[in-house]
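Convert to structure. Protein one:
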Amino acid sequence: MYRAIDSFPRWRSYFYFITLIFFLAWLVKNVFIAVIIETFAEIRVQFQQMWGSRSSTTSTATTQMFHEDAAGGWQLVAVDVNKPQGRAPACLQKMMRSSVFHMFILSMVAVDVIVAASNYYKGENFKRQYDEFYLAEVAFTVLFDLEALLKIWCLGFTGYISSSLHKFELLLVIGTTLHIYPDLYHSQFTYFQVLRVVRLIKISPALEDFVYKIFGPGKKLGSLVVFTASLLIVMSAISLQMFCFVEELDRFTTFPRAFMSMFQILTQEGWVDVMDQTLNAVGHMWAPVVAIYFILYHLFATLILLSLFVAVILDNLELDEDLKKLKQLKQSEANADTKEKLPLRLRIFEKFPNRPQMVKISKLPSDFTVPKIRESFMKQFIDRQQQDTSCLLRRLPSASSSSCDHSKRSAIEENKYIDQKLRKSVFSIRARNLLEKETAINKILRACTRQRMLSGSFEGQPAKERSILSVQHHIRQERRSLRHGSNSQRISRGKSLETLTQDHSNTVRYRNAQREDSEIKMIQEKKEQAEMKRKVQEEELRENHPYFDKPLFIVGREHRFRNFCRVVVRARFNASKTDPVTGAVKNTKYHQLYDLLGLVTYLDWVMIIVTICSCISMMFESPFRRVMHAPTLQIAEYVFVIFMSIELNLKIMADGLFFTPTAVIRDFGGVMDIFIYLVSLIFLCWMPQNVPAKSGAQLLMVLRCLRPLRIFKLVPQMRKVVRELFSGFKEIFLVSILLLTLMLVFASFGVQLFAGKLAKCNDPHIISREDCHGIFRINVSVSKNLNLKLRPGEKKPGFWVPRVWANPRNFNFDNVGNAMLALFEVLSLKGWVEVRDVIIHRVGPIHGIYIHVFVFLGCMIGLTLFVGVVIANFNENKGTALLTVDQRRWEDLKSRLKIAQPLHLPPRPDNDGFRAKMYDITQHPFFKRTIAVLVLAQSVLLSVKWDAADPVTVPLATMSVVFTFIFVLEVTMKIIAMSPSGFWQSRRNRYDLLVTSLGVIWVILHFALLNAYTYMMGACVIVFRFFSICGKHVTLKMLLLTVVVSMYKSFFIIVGMFLLLLCYAFAGVVLFGTVKYGENINRHANFSSAGKAITVLFRIVTGEDWNKIMHDCMVQPPFCTPDNSTYWKTDCGNYAGALMYFCSFYVIIAYIMLNLLVAIIVENFSLFYSTEEDQLLSYNDLRHFQIIWNMVDDKREGVIPTFRVKFLLRLLRGRLEVDLDKDKLLFKHMCYEMERLHNGGDVTFHDVLSMLSYRSVDIRKSLQLEELLAREQLEYTIEEEVAKQTIRMWLKKCLKRIRAKQQQSCSIIHSLRESQQQELSRFLNPPSIETTQPSEDMNAVNQDNGAQPETSSQQQLLSPTLSDRGGYRQDSADAGKPQRKFGQWRLPSAPKPISHSVSSVNLRFGGRSTMKSVVCKMNPMSDAASCGSEVKKWWTRQLTVESDESGEDLLDI
């Protein structure tokens, strides 16, 4: 990158290499870890029998044996192997088993470790064998030998060696006893001495359990270690046979050298040097083959083998499914317990006596003195009165109307409490009857379901695979029926014995599930009670202590100024629009921007902007332009302090400082805010003009560099990142202890073996220390590969230097501190090859095993253990660590459904015209594959450099122009087939159109200019076109989605990394801004400004020579020029500061933050990694649903009305199909769920998909506790409402049938009534009295009578419905027919008023004329009235429904 900076513009080099590292080294490389982890999880079941099941930490001192009992049977009995079986006295056995004895031994082990760590190199003339460290080792060895003999005497030899821990102790005893012999002291037996530190793991039970969890099931990790060793041996043997005959190549001459070279490639340190040396030695002919060989081995070793170690460690950290559920319950209980207690800063008020606030009641006509009463006691009556008044107004709206007089209102006010009591009693009765109603409806549902299952209505139908919706629906119905256990005897008749046994086991299983439900509900009730108790405690403190919840004990709780501060502090942007009818939140066009604006409050947005501006101002600071001497930089300092003062004052006045429920200092973020403010305020007030190195003023400037961390507190997502980082601090701390223990063991061993042996004279011709004096000439080389041609007698350029006998520049093993620093650098896999070569060259080849073993343990197990622990903690903090397999799949499914979007593909044109043919062509798989091949072919053109001076570039550019025109044709065909609006709906089509447009612009510029810029633009267009191929294949699309979603979800983690990097960059400018150039500190890599410091730190994040940069910053006199007045006048470094600075940065960034990226990638890969065998929704199911949605949503708005959900569900096929013949009840449940959740409004794509996902899984296995309770309650409510609707519809159908019969009887009655009227008319009007126009009346009557049979026939043919009521009323209201209203009948009025004469009509009924003779001896008018009353009574008895209103009342039941 530095060479590119010197050759090209700086921005181009930075952009290219930073994006390359980010995408390839941090994202794509970690995808391999995700692939290996998921694949390992899939095949875990196959190896479960070989590796054994997981188990918790058990004592190795307990076993089980068969013993015969009194009845003659055999049973397993636990036997304690620590039980005294030796010949020692009882007092010694008791002492051996006491905790005091064990603590004494462990303390002696700790003292031995401290003594061994205190050893150091004292010089060549010092006699090392019989010093104080040797005598101390002899004493400790004798002590531990006596301990082993005592345990053997107390437990017996058989009982002693039965424990694995005792076997390890016996091995240490034998090894250390041999080690104290003078001839074997400071030899390879030193390992046994330093391994005593492993016994200290027994001190901490948490550390012991963690170690057992990782290394206890040793079959998996041991098998992987054996596989890695076998791979190294095989590849070393192959490389030895391939390259041992190559001249001028000494890396593969022997098997040990070949093994070291292949191991070096495995660790990625300097593997390029091995490959380059081999390529130069084999020649150009075999160079490509050798390069492919080394690259494949490197990729397999780094991407697959190391990922296998991470997968094994994660599998060891995984819990059993039953244990996960148990821990979920315990965690819920623990959360309930913690919520019950108030924080300690609030409970401190309980230590003070109660002093409730009192008020004095005045304006009471009384002769005696009224005492003071609690203000809260009086407020409850005021609140109660207001609440009662509001309830009364809501319950009786007529009471407030103008129609009610004053007396009625007073009566209502007097009886309002009686009315409340009556309503409460009614509600209690309803509550008591709720269980009975649920039981009755469940009986109906179970009876209907079982009747349908046991009936033969399904016989004779072709066998069809049931959908997952149907399967899960029947599982839930069966579960509910078994849970309630009704009708079991009646249904179980006729079943076989095996079926009854299976039903019994299912019943027992569901009974256990019901018992779990009760436990879950108890936990939920406990949580609610804990929250209520917490609120009650807070209210009691608020009532009894007047200073509680008062900011600074001054501002009142409800003071106007405090309310104003609250409004200012909590004001935020809220653009969510709700529907006034349904209450649903409407999606706006720019909802993502609105969500971003509403992420924090307005005050926090202001402080974020001010903090960013202040950080930008700090980036212009340097040792040569200091804020103390630059007034322009001081402006930003003043602005930041002023704004932060205003912010803190507002927040303190609104929420309090410390002793309030929502205080500013209630967590670590508040403490950090106050700390940053105080540091900034002190620095602004002090503003030191001279800052000496390693002084308090320089420390204050370093602490001032923590200012960017304010953004962590202001942004909620950033606080979440910090919480995820520190929540798993316990496990990270345990891993750090293990790695430090490993480093201490090898450091102690290295001090005893290599102390003083790594020093050498800087003159390569001098071997002994006695001859290393004087000066010698050293040649200067400009480059390693540059050979200068010298004239005869001419010397190479050089200079004279003194001879010095010294250790290597960057490391030594003279004491434990330097040794641990060297091993820490080796642990990061940087510089370990140099350490290995120095040890082999100066001590001996056999000692190369030391560094290889440490690198293998530290790299393969230590670093991968760090990765596994960070991933496990990330999952635990997100709540996914304790999820079972089904629950994890359900969470992945929900995340996948959130990402899924409707297909932006318009439907095929209806006709078979030109557009339809184009549509078929563009959607054909052959067309898509052809386009993909053309994209790859165009990308191959970039394999040759496009240089304007090269004649080959013109044909390549011409071929690219041809490809561009083909892609233009493709886009044109799609636009014709889909129409411009339909083409624009797809994002992929928009990207293709953008790239094609850029290609057309490039073609125009290419033929117009033909220069280097047009060629570079053409190459960029080809690269952009290549990314479009990722969406054309399922696997590539899955990996691309993994990377894209990981980038989206890791945005705040990346921002957090940048903020940490910015803080370290500011601190690096203060500490190392003027350090002199060295081996790696140069004009490109230095800390002279914040920009260059960021570049150096980004290089350190990648691990590239970070240790060499650290050693350059440690330079001390006499190799630099010190200055005690100011730090910017010296070029010396800071040894302690550099050590803490670089080590802490590398651990936090490289070991923790980057592993969080790995965790996110693993999580997102498991989100998209699913197989068809899963019982959840697969890619084919989602694709089928998208196609069906695309058919229903014809407007492409992403929403459809609720009534269209029925059509969508009927169109689904495959696993999401709903068979209306078998699962009609499920269909009703799904439709009603949409109506209930959305109040009959529009539903979105994700709403329907979420409903289908809930219906397609077994909620008992997939959902967590709270979500399971909410879902079961919702489904129960839906089933109850659907059952009510079913009963209501059944009643309506019955009433429709009754109404149809009534209408038919009414038509007959109407005919009878007309015939009676005609007979009565003829009887009352004799034939002598007739009108002069009988023919016209007869024709009119005949026409009416002729139309009557036709109307009757129509009423008989049409099936009556609820919509026929209007027609019925219209028919009954026609002229010439009787009408009835509210049970009262009246005769039809004549069309013309006629006195004393009525037209005679000839009634035709049933094809015959009927005449009824009535003989009456009374007056004709009275006779007519009496006959009419008799007929009326007869008609009334025949009718079942007296009025239309009564029928409507029946229909509304």
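Protein two, convert as well:
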Amino acid sequence: MHYSRICMSLVRSPEVIPDRVVHISVQVLSNEILATHVVKNCQLFHIMILSIQEMVRSSLTDCKIKDEYGTNVNFHQVVSCSNHVIRNHSYWPIISDLTNLMSHKPCVDVFFASPDLIRMWTSLLLTFTGINLNEREREQHLEFAPHYYAAFTAEVEACAAPMWQLVSHCKTSETIEFSKMMISVCAEEIQDWFDALNLNSAPSPMQFSFHLPLLRHLALFISFAVNKQSHVLQPLLPNTDGYMLQLMMFPLQIQVCLYEIFAGMWIRNGLQIKAQAMTYSQCHFCSSMLDLDIFLLQLCTCKLKSDVVITTILERYHVLDYLSLNPRHTNTFLKKEGQEMVMLEGALYLLLAVINTRIHLGMSNYELLKSEVIAMLCMKDKTHSQLLDQIPERSEVLSISDMFEDILKEVADFKDPTQLSGGNFRQGQYVLKPELWTSEFDPIMVQMRSMQRKDYQGALDNYTAIMKQSGKHTGSDVLWPAYQPLKDINQEFKPVQQLLHSRTLHAALFLVLHKAVNVKDVSEPVMYQCIALISLALQCQPNDITQVEVGDTCNDMELSDWFPYNNMLKNISYTIKTIELTRKEKTDSSNPFRALLKDLHAENSTFPVEPPVQAAFAGNLGPDVDDIHMEMADNDDIDDEEDDEEEEEFFDAIQNAMDIIEMTGVIEIPPEATAYDEEAKAPIPINQPSATDTAKCTSVDINESMLSLLVKLYSKLSTDKVYKRQATGSTDPKAGSGPYYIGKLLDRLAELSKECADRLQVQPKKRQEEDNVDAVSERKRKALERQQHLLAKFASQQKQFLEENPQISVESAKQVESFSMETDPISSLEEQIECVICTQPIPASEDNPLGAVVLVQTTNVLNHRSVVGDALEHEAGCSNDVIRKPTKTSHVINQQKKVILTQFFKEESSYFAASLGCSSSDVHIQTCGHFLHLQCHANYVKSLRLSRHNLKQGEYLCPMCRQLANSFLPCSKQSLQDDPDGSQVDSTRELDDHRIRQQIEGSFRKDFKLNILPDSVRNFLMQILKPKEFLERINGVALINTVRTNLELDLINRNGCLVSKQPCPVPKRSCVGMLLHGIRAQYQSTLRSKLQELWGLLLKGTPDGSDSPPALLRNPVNLLLQLIVSIRLPLSIRRPDGSDSPPALLRNPVNLLLQLIVSIRLPLSIHHFQYIAKVVWRLTCTQILTALSCRFTQEERLAWKEKPERMVSGGVCPVEKILSSVIGYFIRGKLYQESACMKTDVEITSTVWTRGSILNEVEQGSLNFIQIASLLQHYLYRVDLPASKEGESEFDTLLNYLKLTNVVRNDNVEAGHLATILKWCTELDNVAIRSVSQTQQLLALNHANYSVPHLIHLPHDFSKLFQHYSKQKCNLCYAALKSPALCLVCGNLISLNATCCKLRPKNEGGLHAGVCGSGTAIYLSIDSSNIMIYRGNRSCTWSSVYLDHYGEEDRGLKRGKPLILNEARYSFLENLWRNHTLDHNCKGLIMNLY
């Protein structure tokens, strides 16, 4: 009883009351018994409708709808959208209660039982009919129209929602009286509306409104009365044709103005008019607006004569003037070129939509939902939630939801989430099944559901792509869409299809075909729409075939009198002989450029018609210049982009012509302007008068039929030129371009009509091709001849120059000959690459070298490796404890080695010998594979002004691929195989070990002059050393660590395995070789004294009394690298006094290998490299066997010591001999004095120590060294990595690759090598005196076998993770943790937005990234399931790794769907982290504002 006061309060303060009212009323009115009681006894319907009328009364304003002449006096009043009641949706609580009441059947019975109540409702609807009237601006631009969306919301909420509730109760024959009552009242109210408008003629074409709720009520109830309640249609329609024609004008005007907007005719009305056009077709509005408007036109078609409907449509689309054969026809409404073609396309589309749309013509809910889903999938692949959200809202939504899953399985295939180019992932989407494109693709339905032109064009592009993939269409011709055939509709609506037999339509199609054959201004969409209409007309028969008398001469604009029959099959072969021109046109002299061209071609009697601007391409709805690319954000923001390239080209051409005239004073017409190609002309037929003779002619001889025009159009579009009827039973591809569909139509005509078949047998002869070559081809031929002449002239001059300068020829020959020799990959690579900026073959110099675009970044990935065999960490969230991290990581083991070595030896010697790397300052270097000159690089970086990249740190984007980079790596000109004097060593000649050793030691006695390190190389090396401040005084070790880090990471990128099914060439993006060259130059100038120690350590042992780490404690890989880089000085067996370095057996073999590589100063061939690798590998085996012997019992040691002596000759392998020698020495020394077996963090377990088990331990322990050595050979000498062989392990394959097989299989061990082993043992035993246990621990830690690093293991169900971590509290203030995020690298929980207390750092994510990953971190947000990536001072949100059942993300957990872990995404993210490619794949990284 208080609704009247509530509505007054809503008008005054709409912010607070609505929610309170709804919260109460929804509980009261949801009860059907209580709702029925208040409706019957309290007249609640009357109160609500009166309350709404009272609310909108203050917003009523005069309606401004005018007729064509603007002479009517309008008495109608409508709601003003600018009023705050409509703008703020103050009516919503009352409408919500009204809709709730109408959901109850007893309440609806009361509503329909009262005609007065229905009239009250329709009178309310009348105030919303015609709101937000749009008037076309022609002089000034409309700046802003902010309230258009309020009008759409008002119609849907206040008018359409109650309408769908009312009609939902009118589905059976028992309720037919309800429908008839509503139809009758709506018809009367519409008549009153017509009287109030007082129109003296048709509505003004300059005005229209999208909002016709009263008319749509009438249409929807008629649809339900006929389709659901089986009522006859004609009694429901008004009796007078004038009423139906006037009713037709308003929905027709909306369709016309849609295409006017596409044609750019409403451009002065601003973006809001385009937004209204999009909203009209939007999924939330189309079922209540667009679909009912089309049905209204279909109802008018059922009542009116077909010729009247066709003529009205052509007139409202302003295309009747275009259909005139007068060549000087003028269109006073469509003045710009191209607009006529767009409007003609719109008129034909509307005819196809009216004829072939079955939404309200008897289509079942299942068919309707299926067509909606197919239409959406044709435009674009969509997710499950998008499909559900975009289904048009109507009363059958509940039943549609039940059928949705079955239909989706029938029509679509699920496509798993895939990666996008920007680094993110596409969510799981549904794709239309390929076979449905030929049978279910409906261009009309797709166009009706397209909000933008690009959506429909996207559907056509997808159709073309599918047809080409399936082989149903080949070639480059534009594919025409296949329109659906006529399908069964309700018999009451059969008159709709009679439009196809309208004489006026037949005449219009004839004229369009005539223009398509004789001129070139007819777009392909217009042509294939005409062919579609003719094809549809052949699929149905007219109700009654009538014939009228038609003379030989037809009047030009009187289209209804051209054909005698109302049957397409009979009219299509009828010949139109003469057209009488009854209109006089004005002479076209307004175009100065046109007049100029006429004067210049006065003598040319066949002057071509002015070439029109191509209005539309295949599949487009309008001209490109008016291409509407609009995106709606919150239904208000519109992004309009127009393509101006063609316009700019046109004005540039005009400007160039004017410049020539200004400079020369002569108008010069280029040959292209006078040499018209026959295909490019727009010829006037012989029997058609030219433009100059129009005033003298009153008739035009045609002598064509639609059939003959179809044949000519086929010849014009087809390459065959002559139509040939397809044989019966031939394979039909069901897709093609214009000739295919025209030929298919002609075949159908031949089948249906004998007369057509006879006429098709008589074909015009193929036109003879012209003998002379056209002007364009002739110019191309002459240009080619001139080019060849110039090339020959240049070649002769070059030859003459070389003859006059013979010394240049000799030097060039030498240069070419030297290029053919085997050189280092870096040298040959530099000759093949070029600068991507200047692209000039400028040779690189020391001042301006050629270098690679590289990205240098700190890394901590290696520290997260765990020892093989270590227990995996628990799944995140599977227990109440914090995630248990692996205890035996690379970081932990290196820290243990560092503590022990620094206790025994000096810090510098410890780092040099064992290379205690894997720190947070490790550097990873990668390149995109592009190169720049140093000067080009400097100029490019200087010119960049990037907002999202920090230029102070030297960051830039690669000029070619736009990948992030921050450094410049120079390419060295000197090869590893180059002698310091410039000569090269022959790497193809086989050398034995003795010869190689003599060459290496002989090179030590040469006095080499140190080369000056180029500034570019020094700057790059300083950038590498910058993070390693603690190693500044021993930067050579830092450089060795850099090489090893990149080799180890390369191995990780290959998933820890170098052997694959196919040989692996050197990757194009590798920079290891260039890095070694730069480090080699720096290393030789800083570590001169260390070289003596390295080589003597490996071959001679070290003297007694040395205080440096023994050989058995050194890293073999580092030794190899150090030797290759630094060997250049005369060898001295004795080390300098006072040296303090670990013994050989405590050195790291990997680091030793690297040190050797970067140290050697001689021509280093692959044979030298393999010999050095062999020497270091012997040290590796000795270290492993020494560590293994420490685990033996005393009895096992004695047995293995005597085993080689007891075995027959040939049955002992080198490993057994080495093990026997080691045990034989240490059994008398200090290393075995501990009674218990060695216990270390790296467990080596075996029950019985047999030959096989020992060889297996040697293989596992030395595999990392073999892999690193193989990578070095791979990159330094560009030898492909080997392919896997059946039955052969990776270890054996790589041994063969390095030519180390004989070291294991040969039973002979050199006496000198055994003596060196004893020296190594002596060094180690001297260290063991200090601490036996720590020495044994170092031996084991030196060859720890690590697994590939990985992210933490996440639970399969996100709910477990959410429940566990959402309850975590801050460990400082014990409050709820804000924005909890789980680090996927280490498993720690942090707060990305630490606002719970002041003790936590604000940028905790960035700080933890610096500690955990050297600036890189990956977080899983617990509150949103998003992945947050931190890279240095940048961060971004990445795709979620938790998806729902349909492969969709639920960012922010807004949809509440169960989420499960997507293993593919998580694995991809893990690879990005391991491969250091987060910068390249995450394009959304932005600077943090901390």
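The CA atoms of residues 1212 and 1307 lie 6 Å apart. The chain has 57 helices and 28 strands.
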